[in-house]
Specification:
This protein is mainly alpha-helical and 84 residues long. It has a single domain, classed as ACP-like (Non-ribosomal Peptide Synthetase Peptidyl Carrier Protein, Chain A), CATH 1.10.1200.10. Helix content is 57%, strand content 0%. It is globular, with a radius of gyration of 12 Å. The chain starts with a helix and ends with a helix.
C-alpha cells in the first residue's frame, strides 16, 4: 500500500514527465486546471498513467470532482487502499 506522500511523489514525477511542468509548481494545493494548465485531454492521459502505475483505474466520474493535486492524491489513495 502507498501512503499519501509516496502517491504525491509519483504524481509529481508524472506531471513533470507527461506535461513538462516545473516540479516546484506542483503542490498539494495547486489547481490542475488553473495553476498547472491541465486540460481535459491531459486529464485523460493522467488517468491512464495512474492506471499503469497502480494497476487500477480511477473512474471518470470520480475524476470529475478532482480540482487540486491533493484531490488526485486522495482519489488514488482511496483507490489503492480500497478493501476488495
Amino acid at each position: 500500500m502507498q501512503n499519501r506522500d509516496e502517491i504525491f511523489a509519483i504524481l509529481r514525477d508524472a506531471l513533470v514527465e507527461l506535461f513538462e511542468l516545473d516540479a516546484e509548481r506542483i503542490t498539494l494545493d495547486a489547481n490542475l486546471y488553473q495553476d498547472l494548465e491541465i486540460d481535459s485531454i491531459d486529464a485523460i492521459d493522467l488517468i491512464d498513467h495512474i492506471k499503469r502505475q497502480t494497476g487500477k483505474k480511477i473512474a471518470a466520474e470520480e475524476f470529475k470532482s478532482v480540482r487540486s493535486v491533493g484531490d488526485v492524491v486522495e482519489a488514488v489513495h482511496r483507490l489503492v487502499n480500497a478493501v476488495p
